[in-house]
Automatic annotation (TrEMBL), chain A:
Transmembrane segments: none annotated. It comes from Eleusine coracana subsp. coracana. Component of the proteasome complex. The 26S proteasome consists of a 20S proteasome core and two 19S regulatory subunits. The 20S proteasome core is composed of 28 subunits that are arranged in four stacked rings, resulting in a barrel-shaped structure. The two end rings are each formed by seven alpha subunits, and the two central rings are each formed by seven beta subunits. The catalytic chamber with the active sites is on the inside of the barrel. The keyword Hydrolase does not apply. GO terms for cellular component: cytoplasm; nucleus; proteasome core complex. This is Proteasome subunit beta. It is found in: Cytoplasm; Nucleus. Keywords: Cytoplasm, Nucleus, Proteasome. InterPro entries: Ntn_hydrolases_N (IPR029055), Proteasome_bsu_CS (IPR016050), Proteasome_sua/b (IPR001353), Proteasome_suB-type (IPR023333).
From TrEMBL, chain B:
The lineage of its organism: Eukaryota, Viridiplantae, Streptophyta, Embryophyta, Tracheophyta. It is found in: Cytoplasm; Nucleus. One of its GO terms (cellular component) is cytoplasm. GO terms for biological process: ubiquitin-dependent protein catabolic process. This is Proteasome subunit alpha type. Residues 6-28 form the Proteasome alpha-type subunits domain. It holds the Pfam family Proteasome. Residues 242-268 are annotated as: Disordered. The gene is ga06384. Belongs to the peptidase T1A family.
Length: 221, 268
């Protein structure tokens, strides 16, 4: 693949998904790291737990993603020292947006999905573009498989349009296990057709009991 | 120390080779309320006597968490101490950002000392009027340092600073040789006893002292730097007092923790 002489980014592929429920949030990402048509590793996590109720999944250029995650984790530690409590998910959402826009003219090549519980304990998902434009939604997908997954989530989660008035809650009425099954199904489908998605699926579930992690095998071809 | 013509500026030496402003800054530390620190091979404990400006106000915060593996207790101008704690926190965060590992405690103490030294050599600055006991855990074990306003720092097994700290130091001098093998519970008890010495008669309760501990447990996991909550402190104080009241049979005392020091004489 030939790029401009000054192209400093590369796309390491992968897909991230998050779904918010009434009192839980599911954040999932595959673990394949690629460059061009090659696989660099089958076992690389794209998920970062920034606070006890706030999890970030990012796909894109891993160099920028690692730097972004480290930056946010350090800022969260500073917040903890100053406010004597951990950052809430909506607060981290704004911080992430500001951090991304700060590099508006040399962006982080990272497509982010932030998931967790808000201050009332309800699930929340925030979806971003590379320069920090963000929106709170009930579910989102980002990365190379996002175009394959988003329409399926739209169909299954029946989330009302944000244009409707009065504003309706975007979180899905599905139970936690149903949401996890849906995530597994959409990833299995995306793995079939997207060459950059596969190997293993890492699922992180945040609810009031805490955070837990699950790994599911995906097709390795 | 008396007022003299060489003590106005920090950048003026006296004929005897002293910097009076720096020495006056050390006096400010002696005016602050007491703090003690002590350590074993694996744990370090900091304790501070709380002083409130009046009965109506809350007490001064004297113990600050600086990182997961380290914290400070201060005596003197607590506002200066707050600012230095913020500096230490950002040093720890910056170090772990670059090196992905915790800042070793000796380097933390060094950064603080270098910062304090700058203020002793600038005509437009004044020395920080606060002494800090820096306690932390790193690869080489638990450490306790004392940082002066002069920019000097030393490592200690146990130390006390602030007003009436001599009483606490005398107490610690008698016992410090055994501290390397003390359990965390024994360290906490000795820290509380040392603080009690500085209160001189006033009753020791969980509301007039703060205790924090950091260390590595026997199984290798880390106990991050944390202030012990008031309820647990009160329980420990109560068990210490009960043991004192029955000095003839210390072994019969019901102790909360595993680390019973029934063998050590309670000759406070």
């Amino acid at each position: 693949m030939s790029r401009r002489g000054d192209w400093v980014y590369e796309n390491n592929g992968g897909t991230c998904v998050a779904i918010a429920g009434a009192d839980y949030c599911v954040i999932a990402a595959d673990t394949r790291l690629s460059v061009g048509y090659s696989i660099l590793t089958r076992d690389h996590s794209k998920i970062c737990e920034l606070a006890d109720k706030c999890v970030l999944a990012s796909s894109g250029f891993q160099g920028d993603i690692k730097a972004l995650h480290k930056n946010l984790a350090a800022r969260e530690l500073l917040y903890q020292h100053q406010h004597n409590k951990r950052m809430s998910c909506p607060a981290m959402a704004q911080l992430l947006s500001n951090t991304l826009y700060y590099k508006r003219f040399f962006p982080y090549y990272a497509f982010n999905v932030l998931g967790g519980l808000d201050s009332e304990g309800k699930g929340c998902v925030f979806t971003y573009d590379a320069v920090g434009s963000y929106e709170r939604t009930g579910y989102s997908a980002q990365g190379t498989g996002s175009t394959l997954i988003m329409p399926v989530l739209d169909n299954q989660l029946k989330s009302p349009s944000p244009l409707l008035l009065p504003a309706r809650d975007a979180v899905t009425p599905l139970s936690e296990t149903e949401a996890i099954d849906l995530v597994k199904d959409v990833f299995a489908s995306a793995t079939e057709r997207d060459i950059y998605t596969g190997d293993k699926l890492e699922i992180v579930v945040v609810n009031k009991a805490g955070t837990r992690r699950e790994y599911i095998d995906l097709r390795k071809d | 120390m008396f007022r003299n013509q060489y003590d106005t500026d920090v950048t003026t030496w006296s004929p005897q080779g002293r910097l009076f402003q720096v020495e006056y800054a050390m006096e400010a530390v002696k005016q602050g309320s007491a703090c003690v620190g002590l350590r074993s091979r694996t744990h370090a404990v900091l304790a501070a006597a709380n002083k409130a400006a009046s009965e109506l106000s809350s007490h001064q915060r004297k113990v600050f968490r600086v990182a997961e593996h380290a914290g400070v207790a201060l005596a003197g101008l607590t506002a200066d101490g707050r600012v230095l704690s913020r500096f230490l926190r950002s040093e720890c965060i910056n170090h772990s950002f670059v090196y992905e590992s915790p800042l070793p405690v000796s380097r933390l103490a060094l950064r603080l000392a270098d910062k304090a030294q700058v203020c002793t050599q600038r005509s437009w600055k004044r020395p920080y009027g606060v002494g800090l006991l820096v306690a932390g855990l790193d690869e080489t074990g638990a450490h306790l340092y004392y940082n002066c306003p002069s920019g000097n720092y030393f490592e200690y097994q146990a130390f006390a600073i602030g007003s009436r700290s001599q009483a606490a130091k005398t107490f610690l001098e008698r016992r410090f040789e055994k501290y390397n093998d003390y359990t965390p519970e024994q360290l906490i008890k000795d820290a509380l006893s040392a603080i009690k010495e500085t209160l001189q008669g006033e009753k020791l309760t969980s509301s007039n002292c703060t205790v924090a501990i950091v260390g590595r447990k026997d199984d290798g996991t880390m106990e991050p730097f944390e202030t012990i909550d008031a309820k647990r402190i009160q329980e420990i104080i109560d068990s210490m007092e009960a043991a004192e009241e029955a000095p003839t049979e210390p072994s019969a005392m019901q102790q909360e923790e595993e680390g019973t020091d029934a063998a050590a004489p309670m000759d406070i």
